[in-house]
Amino acid sequence: MVKITDVARHAGVSPSTVSYALSGNRSISQATRQRIEESIKALGYRPHAGARALASSRSNVVALMMPLRSGIHMPVQMQFAASVVTMARTHDHDVLLLTQEEGEDGLRRVAGTALVDGLIVMDVQLDDARTPLLRTLGLPSVLIGFPAEADGLTCIDLDFTATGEACVRHLAQLGHRCVALLGSPPEVYARGTGFARRTAAGFTAAAHRYGMSSTVLPCEPGRAAARETADRLLRELPGLTGVVVHNEPALGPLLEAFQHSGMRIPDDLSVVAVCPDELAENAAVPLSSVAIPAAEVGERAVELLMAKLNDGEVPDATLLPPRLTRRASTAPRDASE
Amino acid sequence: MVKITDVARHAGVSPSTVSYALSGNRSISQATRQRIEESIKALGYRPHAGARALASSRSNVVALMMPLRSGIHMPVQMQFAASVVTMARTHDHDVLLLTQEEGEDGLRRVAGTALVDGLIVMDVQLDDARTPLLRTLGLPSVLIGFPAEADGLTCIDLDFTATGEACVRHLAQLGHRCVALLGSPPEVYARGTGFARRTAAGFTAAAHRYGMSSTVLPCEPGRAAARETADRLLRELPGLTGVVVHNEPALGPLLEAFQHSGMRIPDDLSVVAVCPDELAENAAVPLSSVAIPAAEVGERAVELLMAKLNDGEVPDATLLPPRLTRRASTAPRDASE
DNA sequence: GTGAAAGCGCTAACAG
DNA sequence: CTGTTAGCGCTTTCAC
C-alpha cells in the first residue's frame, strides 16, 4: 500500500505538506503543489479512510436511515436515496445505509463508534421515538418530515400550507366556487401541529382569498368511512364541485365512493390529491396532484447536513414549495350547473 | 469520549486485554471477562471505528453498488438492499451505498481508501466493464448476475436452467403438450453463455423429458416485433397451448399480440413469465411466473462475501432454485381441443 | 492467562 | 511557505 510518506518522499516534501496539499488547509506554492499532485498520480496514492478518520475525527461518511421494507411507494424512497448519495458525493462524503428497523440502537451505534459524521433520518413520524435521541447524540442530523416537537431539530419537508393553497388556486382557476378538503383522521388533527393542520390552514386561507365557500373534513381510512364521508359531503354541500384529498390510505376508497354516488370525475367533481406521483398516475382517472419532491428533499437534506458539519447555521425548518401536476381528474367547472 | 484505556483502568486490566475480550482472539478468564463487560456497560464504551480499521486493516463495512435510478422494478431492488443490510448486520458489518453511476471509479475509490472490506455489485451485465477491475482490485467481491466471462469471480443468481424446467413442468402438469419459449433477442443468444441460453436449455430438456413438442423463439422488444413473433408462432404451431416468456421488455407487447390474435389467456393459451412478481401481479391477467428471489439473493450474497473475508473457500457460481408462483394466466389444457 | 509497547497512516499544532 | 513532531484509539506481536 502506498502511503502519504511515500508520496512525500517522491515529491521531495514532508508528509504534512502532502496532507495540507490534499486538504487545502494552508496555502502551498504552486510549484510544490504541482509536484505533489504528480507524485500522487504516479504512485496511485489514496489516503487511508480509517487513518484519516482517526486523526481528523471526521469519517466523511453520513448515515441514511430509511424504511427498506415498506411495501408502499418505493419509487419515492429510491429517488430520495439516489439524490442523497449523489449529492453527498459532490461534498466528498459517502453514505452508510441503515434500515428503519435498526431504530435508536442503530443511530447510537454509528454515532458512538464515529463511523459517521452526521445523520439523515427519513420517514420521521409525528411522534418519533428517535427524536429525543437525536437531540442528545451530539451529531448533526437532518430529519425528513416534521415530528410534533421539532424544536432544536433540523427538519425538511414539503410546504404543506403552500400545498393547500396551491390546490385551491388550481381549482379556483378552473372556476370552482365550492370546495372541500378531505384530510387525515380526526386524531391526527387533534394530536398537534402536524402537516395535516398546515394543509388545512393553507386550504382555508386560500379559499377565503378567492371568495370560495370551503369545508374541511377529516376522513378515517377504510371503505366504509370513505363512503360515509363522501355521502355526508355531497349531502351537506350540494354545490360542491372540487375536492382536495390529503389522506393517502383513504384516497382510493374515496374515489370509489364518489363514483358510487354517481359523481363522475372530472365531469361532476374535480379532484386534487396530495400523494406520490406514482399513485396519482396509476389511479383509474389519473389524478391532478401535488407530490413530495423526493429528489429535491434529498439534495437539500444533504446540503443542510453539510452546512451543519461545517458549523454553519441552518434554519430549523425547511419547507419546499409544492408543484402541482395537472392530470385528468380536474376540469373547468361546468358553467351550466 | 470513552476509550479502551478508560475501560481497562476501570476494570483493572490492560488495554490489550480489553481488546482481546472484545475480539475473542485469545482466551480470557471468566472473571476478568466479566469485569470488562461490566466496565464497558458502565462507561458506555464503543470502539472507535476509524482507529479499529487503522489498527486491524478491517473496516467492517461492505460496499453495495446498485442502480438507484432505473425506473424499473424497484421493489426487487429494495428487497434486495434490505436483505443485504440486514444480513450484513448479523455479521457485524455495515453497508456503504454506491450508485451504479459511480462505476469503476467508485469501486476503486472505496477499495483504495480501505473504506470497505468487500464489494457486492448488483445488476451485472453480460459484458460488464467492472468485471476486469474486480479481478484486480484485491478485495473480495460478489456479483449479482453472471457476466459472460465469470472465471475467478463469485457470482450468484437465479438458476435459469432450473427455471426453464420449472415452467415446462408446470405446463406439463396442466396437460399441455405443445409449448414454446419466447426468449431474448437473437443477439443475446449469439453473444455467449448468458442466462438466456440456460433458460432455453432447461426448457428444451424438460419438454423432451415430458414428451412435449417444443419450440424456442427469440423475440425482439417492441410492439411490431411482438406482433410478428406471436403471429408466426400461432401459424407454425397450431396446436400450441402454452408459452413461457423470458423477455421482460417484450412481455407486455406479446400479451397484447396474443389477445389481438384472438387467443384468450388462459382459456386458449397458458402463459408463464420469468419476471419480477411486481410485473406479474399487475398484468391485465395476473401471470403465473418465476421471479428473482431478491431477498434470498441478498442474504446469500452477504454470506458468500463474509466467507471470502474469512478466507473461506466459496463456489464460483451459486444458482438459486426457482419458485413458480401460480396466478391466473395458466390453466389446464381444454381437453376438448 | 495477562501486560507492555510498537505501530497502523494520517492530521494538526507548533516552530521556523 | 514548509518541516518536525506528537498524537488520534485501537490491535497485535512479543514477553512473561
TrEMBL record, chains A, B:
Residue segments, region Disordered? 318-337
Which Pfam families does the UniProt record give? LacI, Peripla_BP_3
Q: What InterPro entries does its record include?
A: HTH_LacI, LacI/GalR-like_sensor, Lambda_DNA-bd_dom_sf, Peripla_BP_I
Is Transcription among this UniProt entry's keywords?
Answer: yes
> Which parts of the sequence belong to the HTH lacI-type domain?
2-56
Any keyword ATP-binding? no
Listed GO molecular functions? DNA-binding transcription factor activity; transcription cis-regulatory region binding
Q: Which UniProt keywords apply?
A: DNA-binding, Transcription, Transcription regulation
Task: Extract the SMART domains matched here.
Answer: HTH_LACI (SM00354)
Q: What is this protein called in UniProt?
A: LacI family transcriptional regulator
The scientific name of the source species is: Streptomyces armeniacus
